[in-house]
């Protein structure tokens, strides 16, 4: 199930011979053809996917931290 939001309260989008209507600026669909078309539409944003993208961005932004515990190496050398 994909959820979409539109700035327009009532918007109708035709994809081929299929029609999806936005009520109060929101719409849901399971149809893959409609989902692909709405993702490319500049008037519509997908609201159920951004969580995954935010997590990926957070992981990329954080550099890997090195361990501050170096005592194990020193003990192994002795």
Automatic annotation (TrEMBL):
Region entry Disordered, spans: 41-78
Basic and acidic residues composition bias: residue spans: 41-63
Start-end of Basic residues biased regions: 64-78
Superkingdom to which the source organism belongs: Bacteria
Protein name: Uncharacterized protein
Species: Thermoactinomyces intermedius
């Amino acid at each position: 199930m994909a959820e979409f939001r539109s700035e327009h309260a009532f918007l109708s989008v035709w994809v081929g011979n299929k029609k999806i209507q936005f009520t109060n600026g929101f719409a849901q669909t399971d149809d893959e053809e409609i989902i692909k078309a709405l993702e490319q539409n500049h008037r519509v944003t997908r609201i159920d996917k951004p969580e995954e993208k935010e997590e990926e961005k957070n992981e990329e932004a954080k550099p890997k931290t090195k361990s501050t515990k170096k005592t194990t190496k020193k003990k192994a050398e002795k």
